[in-house]
Amino acid sequence: MKEIDQQGSRAGDHPLFDGIREFVANEFVPRQQFFEELGQEQHPHTLFIGCSDSRVVPNLVTRTFPGELFVVRNIANLVPYYKKDSDTFLATSAVIEYAVKQMNVSNIVVCGHSNCGGCAALYQERSELKDLPHTRKWLELALPVKEAVEEMMAKQRITLEERSEYTEKMNVVEQVNHLMRYPYVRQRIKEGRLSVMGWYYRIEKGEIHYYDLKQKRFIRIE
Question: Where is Zn(2+) annotated to bind (predicted)?
Answer without folding.
Answer: 51, 53, 113, 116
